[in-house]
Amino acid sequence: MQKLSPRISSVFNCMLFPKCQKSTKSSDIFDRNAKRRQRESSAQKDDFAVYQYVKEEFGYRMADRVWDIKRLFTHAIELSSGSGFVTQNLTREIVENVVLCDTSHTNLDRIKCPEEIYCSKILIDDEHLPFRNECSDLVLSNLSLHWVNKLPELFSEVIRCLRNDGVFLGAIFGGQTLYELRCSLQIAESERLGGFSPHISPFVEPTDIGSLLNRAGFNLITIDVEEMTINYPSIFELMFDLQGMAESSVAWNRRLHLNRDCLIAAASIYRELYADKSGNIPATFQVINFIGWKPDLSQPKPAKRGSANFSFKDIENLNLKEQ
Prior knowledge:
CATH architecture of the domain at 28-178 and 203-231 and 282-296: 3-Layer(aba) Sandwich
Radius of gyration: 23 Å
Structural class: alpha/beta
Order of helices and strands: HHHEEHEEHEHHEHHEH
Number of helices: 10
CATH topology of the domain at 28-178 and 203-231 and 282-296: Rossmann fold
Distance between the termini: 78 Å
Strand content: 15-25%
GO molecular function: S-adenosylmethionine-dependent methyltransferase activity
CATH superfamily of the domain at 28-178 and 203-231 and 282-296: Vaccinia Virus protein VP39
GO cellular component, one term: mitochondrion
Number of strands: 7
Shape: globular
Pfam family, one: Methyltransf_11
Organism: Tetranychus urticae (Two-spotted spider mite)
Keywords: Methyltransferase, Transferase
Helix content: 25-40%
CATH class of the domain at 28-178 and 203-231 and 282-296: Alpha Beta
């Protein structure tokens, strides 16, 4: 049997498949305590910054979306801020005060805010927001919501914290994220074990996010989807980087272990199905970007049904008149 290098062996033993535990709440999908430990462990690595390329990129893109909103936000909240992936790209011209929230002490210590922005840091869990009602006019969340057990409750909490006409800007991994890795593992297990178990945590779809925002009471909802494809030498480097990102699975139903033969087979299948001419394998990160506004009387409203003075049925006649 093919031997694994010490580095790859450590990935196999410690990263994707930690020991299963019984959920304390039957409705919970994820072990939030395990995720908190992962984030703290990742933040303590000397080469922490090396693995943050996905969050860094989409943090920059989210900041760009904030700049597109032509107003000055007096008070903003960045949830699961990491090392301040969004805030580090803002200035006082757009935001005056920011509260950065994370579950990791070390992540908060790493944050270097722009000098002109007043920043405060709070150690909290995203699922339990301690803020008073209508305290902020901007809430940001960059690639962390996919680990929240109850998104409807969180969205309701966010709209509670927002002032009227406040903005909720978020980015969350979508259903096509890491589909190459998921398919390769499933094929390898099916061929060798006669069935497969989930190794990639479940993700939401764009329609889910729209429905949840609408149900929470947000107005003027906008959603778009982006994909980032990153090439790796092999499945093992991909898995090692996922560990460095603190993106290892913490689903309560995660497997105790992955058969070593299946892992080696999955690496071969991944390369056979997806590798490019140079032998590198792609990994897709699908990101759902969304924006929702807390209702306010100043916001534009749709015209009442039947109030239009022109019918779509008359469009052809309009063209004839113009001729």
